[in-house]
Write a structure and sequence with these properties.
Blueprint: E1 2-7, E2 23-27, E3 32-35, H1 42-49, E4 59-61, H2 67-70, H3 73-79, E5 84-88, E6 94-99, E7 103-106, E8 119-122, E9 126-127, E10 132-135, E11 152-156, E12 159-162, E13 170-175, E14 178-183, H4 190-201, E15 207-210, H5 225-238, E16 241-244, H6 250-260, E17 264-266, E18 272-274
């Protein structure tokens, strides 16, 4: 499997551009996949710069209904004419973020895209084929619910309520005898999501890939360092190799790195992993 980072918060290459977002190009032996699509066209420009042809993508996934993961969906649909994009139907609900403890900002994705016949709206768990599976239903233990979620809301029947992330979905890929767990932001908690994988498979994934939601754009309600260390010890115990970035934050990554050593690596724009 080859994973190329098309959108992420950091970048070390002059010809590429970073943004607060996430987009990964995944190439298995059978399929070319896009997992999340950043804020907008930025991931398309980065893809072109590193030689990734998005017209050849076979299938797309959006992890949840926030602009920094699904904002580039319209741009992708205009570039690629064949891929179906799997997204939880509740991702098109209204989602908001509280910034600086006073300003409510809309952070959802364009509901007009629902009319596109390549948008595959699903509700909960879904098996795409023998090697691709979507996990949405996660048994949440409150101690591993990210504190950063406390600033995130959704509108239900015109009333603002705390987001429970029933629109979040995680992608499992089985390839050449290995299992890969992809999460966009792990809003339900990376420990909870990984334990859900274990409950279903009686084993841990070989790789865990995505953001772990220790940090936020508003820098409010960051995860406590002690909790990050506890999560790091847990992830190390699974023996999975982790590739992370975006909402994990650089400071959170450094803490994990001290505990996990070579079992965790950072995904900046332009990096490529052959795993």
């Amino acid at each position: 499997m080859i994973i190329r980072v098309l959108s992420e918060n950091t970048c070390g290459q002059d010809l590429l551009k970073a943004e607060h977002g996430l987009s990964l190009h995944i190439q298995t032996g059978e399929k070319k996949i896009i997992f999340d699509m950043g804020q907008g066209p930025c991931f398309i420009k980065n893809a072109k710069a590193i030689g990734v042809d998005l017209t050849e993508v076979d299938i797309g996934f959006i992890s949840h209904g926030h602009y920094d993961h699904g904002g580039g969906l319209r741009a992708f649909l205009s570039v690629n004419q064949k891929a179906k994009v799997f997204i939880n139907k509740k991702s098109f609900d209204e989602h908001y973020s509280l910034r600086n403890n006073k300003n409510i900002i809309y952070i959802g994705i364009d509901e007009k895209l629902l009319a596109n016949n390549r948008i595959m709206c699903i509700n909960g768990d879904y098996k795409v084929d023998d090697n691709l599976e979507i996990i949405s239903k996660v048994d949440v233990k409150d101690e591993f619910w990210p504190a950063v979620n406390n600033n995130l809301y959704k509108s239900v029947s015109g009333e603002m309520t705390n987001d429970d992330f029933d629109h979040e979905q995680n992608l499992v890929i089985n390839n050449n005898g290995k299992s890969y767990l992809f999460c966009g932001c792990a809003h339900k908690g990376i420990v909870n999501i990984t334990e859900e994988f274990y409950a279903r498979n009686k084993s841990y994934p070989d790789y865990i890939i995505g953001g772990f939601h220790f940090d936020s754009k508003s820098n409010e309600n960051k995860l406590d360092d002690n909790m990050i260390m506890e999560i790091g010890r847990y992830l190390l115990s699974t023996q999975a190799t982790c590739l992370t970035g975006h909402c994990t934050g650089r400071s959170g990554f450094k803490i994990l790195r001290r505990i996990m050593k070579e079992k965790i690596k950072y995904m900046a724009v332009g990096t490529q992993w052959n795993i």
